[in-house]
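Question:
Now give any protein.
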Amino acid sequence: MIKKLLSCVGEYKKDSLLAPLAVAMEVVMEVLIPLMMAHLLDFGIEAGDMRVILRTGAVLVAACMCSLFFGISSGRYAARASAGFAKNLRRAMYYQVQDFSFSNIDKFSTSSLVTRLTTDVSNIQNAYQMIIRIAVRAPLMLVFSLVMTFTINGRLAIIFLAVVPLLALGLYYIMTHAHPIFERVFATYDRLNNVVQENLRGIRVVKSYVREEHEKEKFEKVSGDIYRDFVKAERLLAFNAPMMQTAVYSCMLLISWLGARFITAGSLTTGELTSLITYTMQILSSLMMLSMIFVMMTMARTSAERAVEILSEESDLVNPEDPVKEVKDGSIVFDHVNFSYAGDEEKLCLKDVTLRIESGQTIGILGGTGAAKTSLVQLIPRLYDATGGRILVGGVDVRRYDLETLRNQVAMVLQKNVLFSGTIRENLRWGNAFASDEELIHACELACADEFVAKFPDGYDTYIEEGGSNVSGGQKQRLCIARALLKKPKILILDDSTSAVDTGTDARIRRAFREEIPDTTKIIIAQRVASVQEADQILVMDGGKLAAIGTHEELLQASHIYREVFESQTKGGEDHE
């Protein structure tokens, strides 16, 4: 785990090394100052020697200025190193997520990934800054101050040796009991993010069904769980401060009492007692800092484990050795394909699908909800790998292709259309970053999107709000189709992506496909028979199996499922008229 995290320090190694070095010099100055103060008191002020006062005072000022300089430097180096480390860690995690397959993302959930990239990285950043600064300062201060106290008076210094083991036992108890609670808290944070995300994404549905109170209850429950866990953890951590305070003041009282007796006996000077009290404060403040570090590390350990879990996750979709980098044509073959999202042969959602599609054909897919229509087409661009059997595109197994090459030749308009914040032009260029304005317009004409884009005051420079909230469902679908067409793919998949457009527009889009991209294999998943009845082949899916295949006329004769769907839609239309 540590090795993976440290690999993200990268170009900030220099700052990470200079920060503890500056801290060490700051500690040296701070440890020397009480010694100089004792010398000033004993040999300057009490002796009335002005030369000693001036000389020692000048050295004290210089030491204080050096301490200040090293303190400022260590703060700057530590801040730069920790911020840079967090930047690199967040980038490494984000890039790793970009390589994840859908199944990897399903494993973690979106809300959990967001929490890990934000809250967890912030915790790790704070811990790293503490490690390279305070975790260096506290032990050095503790050791140096203890050495100085033994140098001044060994009998008084024994007091500290009695306190340290007691504090260590107390800290160990706090850490071992608090860590499991923090693990639970961060898992609950994932649930909280999920509740908030779902609510914001579906706020229109929430309001239309007047479910605000239900959503509030969900939020309150998860938020309450976090509150209770944090209270429990803080109760444990709360023992830290009084334990430290008890140790500090007990040592102070003992040293003051015993020190006064030693002064009276002549075995200790006033300056030495003053420096001992200062060293006492330094030792005990170091112990308090160490306890803070342990508390912070308890929280950061959980965050670090969650971050490393992302960095260690291997995508189950990787490029093969010597991958194929050219897709010959848009032909597709399903050869006894089985598929399960869980990778379990006992829980298949696609069962023994065998199918051949010639390049340039138009294929329609019909089936009820849960018939695995989307699952079928997601295997073509290798968004998932088949559990059994094989899929060939252009005569080559999809697992032999370079992933980027394959996906560049398979344009997919998903069931859930997504537009990103930015102009229409910027969204369209996701299909082809170098597309000319003429190509953008032509793609929009094929998708029947030009007619409404032209009506916008800013045309193709119209700004699309987050999630495409300022355009209608049908407009969003047509822009997504245009974006896919700009890829000039060998295979175009429309996953129920004309459901929000009227039948006339749907017909114009299909006609444009036939006339303008005849060599592109077109796969259309639809609920309306009218959207697929002119296809070269129509697949009827039922329960994850290929129930029937044929033309519209053939299926009317041979498939009762297709016939029932057709008659119900036709009859519904006649009744409406």
Remarks:
- The CA atoms of residues 195 and 218 lie 7 Å apart.
